[in-house]
Amino acid sequence: MTLRETAPKLSPEQYEKNFAEISPRMTPRQAAVEAARCLFCFDAPCTIACPTHIDVPSFIQKISTDNLRGSARVILEANILGHSCGRVCPTEVLCEGACVMHEKEEKPIEIGRLQRYAVDHVLDRNIQLFHAGTPNGKRVALIGSGPASLACAAELAKLGYRATIFDRNELPGGLDTYGIAAYKLRAKDTLREVELVRGLGVEFRQKTTVGSDVTFAQLEKDFDAIFVGVGLGDTGALGVPGEDLPGVLGAMQFIEPTKVRPLAQLTVGRRIACIGAGNTAIDVVTAAKRLGAEIVHLIYRRGEQEMPAFRYEYDLAKLDGVNFHWHARPVRIVGDAGGGVATIECIRTRIEPAAGSKRSQVVDIPGSEFQLDVDMVVRAIGQQPVTAFVRAVQGIAVRENGTIAVSERFQTGNAKYFAAGDCVNGGKEVVDAVAEGMAAARGIDAWLEAPRGKT
Ligand SMILES: Cc1cc2nc3c(=O)[nH]c(=O)nc-3n(C[C@H](O)[C@H](O)[C@H](O)COP(=O)(O)OP(=O)(O)OC[C@H]3O[C@@H](n4cnc5c(N)ncnc54)[C@H](O)[C@@H]3O)c2cc1C
Ligand code: SF4
Predict the structure, then answer these.
(1) CA torsion sign, 107 to 110 to 111 to 112?
(2) Residue 453: is its pLDDT beyond 50?
């Protein structure tokens, strides 16, 4: 990639320091002290707030009696990806957000870190807590190896199904492996968790794209049911001149190498602009800073109050020294003689009520254009759907926004196909994909157990 100026290289140790875990593993003493704070509520609000409804008081109580294996069992029974969820869940708005300690004006229990502490115990020792169910002779194909498919496959394996995952990537794990900020979750840790699923007898066929390497007709012939867990794709286009210049990237193109390549091998611009203000944009700007970029701009067409990113993610970017440009949008990207990016031209915007709509509209302020000197521009304005290929399957309905329409038990309009995760919900969190994947497994089981072929 041609870059006008690159960020100065840091030492390998400095990169590791910059990407060190923001929420490190608890020591046994820290875990014991934190577990002892829990009130073990009846009808615990944290359990209700968790999309996978982990019995939080039960697993914390087991930590307090040093029964870590039992604690991990409680967690993983409800959520096979309890390890990554303990690290990446937006706990502030889920379990910890519901903790009764808030009412007492005390710090909520650190549920996510305690959860990780218990699951680390079994992962570190390669303890396989669950086993495949008695084979029932039925086979299910799963498209995608992200959290939705992993959770669905694990649940099916426990019920006695032969589950085979097809994924186009080299490594399994979906965005857990390729997308989530490296200072929250490293790819090597996701892969440890994938082994829990493989240990249940689930087969992985990586570097296999369904739709080209394998056809739907082949899957329909070889499998009793098919689960679609393809997630979302890379960010959409900005629609401005200059965005085809080298040095203009989609968010996933920018983030992926930070997950699967040695950090010291990565080269980024000295000055970087990121367009968008969701959680993915925050991951881009914080990664850019940690990779050594000196000036990092975040540009958003609406105001600070309307930014979609969670508050604590925003706080992280502020601590990293990112420059925020509210009420501005790019109008063109200008290259230099060497073919790289030189400047991004933006225009200031204002918000106005939109006739006939509850959502306000963004209006340009004429004559307010301004330029920023940059070497790299990253688009983070929302991931695009990758579901066009399933339109080839008769009966599956793809909504206008590209998500797949499903019933309550995650069955599509074609009874043999089920779907869940980001490709159905439009993009939520890992824990939602897990909850939906598990529910889809129960839906598949109910359908295959029912008189064949009836919805
Ligand atoms: C940058 C970023 C940061 C995030 N950070 C967080 C976070 O901190 N916390 C959190 O809880 N959530 C986070 N999320 C959201 C979370 O990653 C997703 O909600 C979750 O991964 C969705 O799981 P999924 O299984 O539906 O899809 P994915 O994880 O996207 O997995 C889909 C898989 O399908 C495969 N696939 C697609 N098409 C085909 C095909 N035709 N054939 C074969 N395989 C195919 C893909 O290769 C991929 O492996 C983040 C998302 C992004 C983009
Ligand atoms: S899975 Fe996530 S939301 Fe549920 S209890 Fe664990 S950390 Fe909280």
Answers:
(1) positive
(2) no
What would the two tokens of residue 2 be? 């041609």
Which tokens in the block code for residue 49? Answer: 């707030």
How many other β-carbons are positioned within 10 Å of the β-carbon of residue 438?
A: 23
Q: Which of 196, 184, 165 is nearest to 81 (CA)?
A: 196
Distance separating alpha carbons of residues 145 and 151, to the nearest angstrom: 9
End-to-end CA distance of the chain: 51
Task: Evaluate if residue 437 carries a pLDDT over 70.
Answer: yes
pLDDT digit string, tens, across residues 314-323: 999 999 999 9
Pocket test for ligand 2, best of 52, 120, 429 (most atoms within 8 A of CB): 52
| Three-class DSSP category at 163 | strand
**CA nearest to 90, candidates 284, 316, 291:** 316
Q: Which of 155, 189, 230 to mutate to test the pocket of ligand 1 (most atoms within 8 A of CB)?
A: 230
Furthest-apart CA pair in the chain: how many Å? 71
Does the pLDDT at position 435 exceed 60? yes
Tokens of residue 217, six digits: 């007709």
Distance (angstroms) between ligand 1 centre and the Cα of 427 equals 8
